[in-house]
Amino acid sequence: MKTKVNILFVCGYGVGSSVMLQSVVQKALKKYSFEFEMEHTAAGEVGGFTGWADIYAISKKLIDVVSLDAGHGQYLIPIENIMDGETIGRQINEVVEAHFPEIISRT
């Protein structure tokens, strides 16, 4: 049984915007009642995370780089504004509620 959700932040080169995105989203997710782990990577390195990541947060400009299968529990959050952690956090929470309800703490 899954106890946490794994979130991967993807940017063009894996060193700038994905790190900033991870930071702002981490703060926004503190108000939700589920455990998560986060990583960041470059678009060209996404393949190395396919067995790990449940949710991919990626710029709309880079969506063509990743190929995901929702049937295998991999979900995509298209990012428009990397500084909008609240909206991205809400989108992640919506995916968790819909597809990973077992990890939500009910206390």
UniProtKB/TrEMBL annotation:
Presence of the UniProt keyword Hydrolase in the record: no
Looking up CDD domains in the UniProt record yields: PTS_IIB_ascorbate
| Keyword entries, A-Z | Membrane, Phosphotransferase system, Transferase, Transmembrane, Transmembrane helix
GO MF terms held by the record: protein-N(PI)-phosphohistidine-sugar phosphotransferase activity
Give the signal peptide, or none.
none
Task: Tell me the domain of life.
Answer: Bacteria
Q: Name one GO biological process term.
A: phosphoenolpyruvate-dependent sugar phosphotransferase system
Gene3D superfamilies found in the cross-reference section = 3.40.50.2300
The UniProt entry, under SUPFAM superfamilies, shows:
PTS system IIB component-like (SSF52794)
The protein's organism comes out as Yokenella regensburgei
What residue intervals traverse the membrane?
6-25
Taken from the record, one Pfam family name reads PTS_IIB
The molecule here is called Ascorbate-specific phosphotransferase enzyme IIB component
Q: What sort of enzyme, by top EC class, is this?
A: transferase
Its EC number is 2.7.1.-
**Originating gene:** ulaB_1
Q: Where is the PTS EIIB type-2 domain?
A: 5-100
